[in-house]
Amino acid sequence: MRVFCFFLTFFCCFSAAQAETPLVRATDAWVRATVPGQSATGAFMTLYSDAPMKLVEVRSPLAAVTEIHEMRVDENGVMRMRAISQLDLPAQKATPLKPGGRHIMLQALKKEARAGERTTLTLVLEDAEGHRHEIAADAEIRPLNAPH
Amino acid sequence: MKKRLMALVFPALLSACGAPEDTAPPAPSPFHAREVSARHGEGFEMTDRQGRTRTLADWRGKVVLVFFGYTHCPDACPSALYRFSEVMERLGEEAAQVRVLFITLDPARDTPEILHNYATAFNPAFIGLYVSPERTPEMARAFHVFYRIAPGQTPDRYSVDHGVSVYAYDRSGRLRLEIPHTATADEVTDDVRRLIAEAEDREQKTED
Question: What is the ipTM of this complex?
Answer without folding.
Answer: 0.79
